[in-house]
Amino acid sequence: MSVKGLLLVGHGSRLQYNKELITTTAEMMKEHGGDYLIRSCFLEYSNPTVAEGLDLMRSEDLEILIVVPLFLAKGIHILRDIPKILGLEAGKKRGTFTLADGRVIPLVYAEPIGIDPLLAELMLKNAANALTLPEDA
Amino acid sequence: MSVKGLLLVGHGSRLQYNKELITTTAEMMKEHGGDYLIRSCFLEYSNPTVAEGLDLMRSEDLEILIVVPLFLAKGIHILRDIPKILGLEAGKKRGTFTLADGRVIPLVYAEPIGIDPLLAELMLKNAANALTLPEDA
C-alpha cells in the first residue's frame, strides 16, 4: 500500500548536535506522526546528504513525497539551495518526484519552522530552565 | 522594582526572515511570558548586535539577565561565539553582568531549542500544511 514519504532536511554541522537534533526529531515524529514514512538527511557536513535521502525515498512505494526543512527561517538554503536539489521551479512549492520503478509522484516542499507560538513557548521554557541552573554551571 | 531581563539572541541574516522570526517571537514571549523584560539582538548581519543588546539591558533595573539563544542546536555560535561576547568562562552557563549604575548581577545562559517534542509537533504541522498547498503553489 502506498504511503506518504516525509523527508526531513537538516542543515548538518561539523559537530554532532545538529545531526542528533534532526534524527531524534525524526524519531519523535514517527511516534507522534501517524502514517508517514520518515527519513532524515542533511544539506552540508552530515550524512546522508539530501541527494542520498532522495535516493532512499525513491525505492519506497510512495504516493507523495513531503520535504520538510528543519530550519528556523527562510534564507538562502530554504529559498535557493534545497529547491535546486529538489528540482523545483523558482518560488514553487510543488513539483514531481520519480520513483525507482518509473512512477512519477507529487512532491511538496513544506515551510521551515517560522513564526509560531510553539517556538515562543519553547524559548520561555529554556529561559525558565536557565534560572534553575546549579551554582557551578 | 527589579525585574528579570531576557535577551533573545538570533543569528541574523542578510534577508529579512530571521529578524522577523526573532522579533516576532520576542513579542509572543512578552504576551505569554509573564514578568520578563524582553529584548532581541543578533549575532551577525542584523541589528541590534549582541553588544548593543547588552548595552540596552545595562540601563535597566535588572536583578538577573537571562540570555536565550534562538538557535536550533549547539554549534560554534552557541559554544564559542556568544559565550565570548557574554564574557563567560569556557563551558560555563553562569556569569555576571554589570549594570550602568555599577551593580553586578547574575547572568545565565540558556540552551538553544534542542531536542523537544514541541519541535516534532511543529514539523508535523508544517508537513500537514504542505499537503494542503494549492495546485499552483
Automatic annotation (TrEMBL), chains A, B:
GO terms for molecular function: metal ion binding; sirohydrochlorin cobaltochelatase activity. Its EC number is 4.99.1.3. Keywords: Cobalamin biosynthesis, Cobalt, Lyase, Metal-binding. The keyword Transport does not apply. It is an enzyme of class 4 (lyase). InterPro entries: CbiX-like, Sirohydro_Cobaltochel/CbiX. PANTHER family: SIROHYDROCHLORIN FERROCHELATASE, CHLOROPLASTIC. NCBIfam families: F430_CfbA (NF033198), PRK00923.1 (NF002090). This is Sirohydrochlorin cobaltochelatase. It comes from Methanocorpusculum parvum.
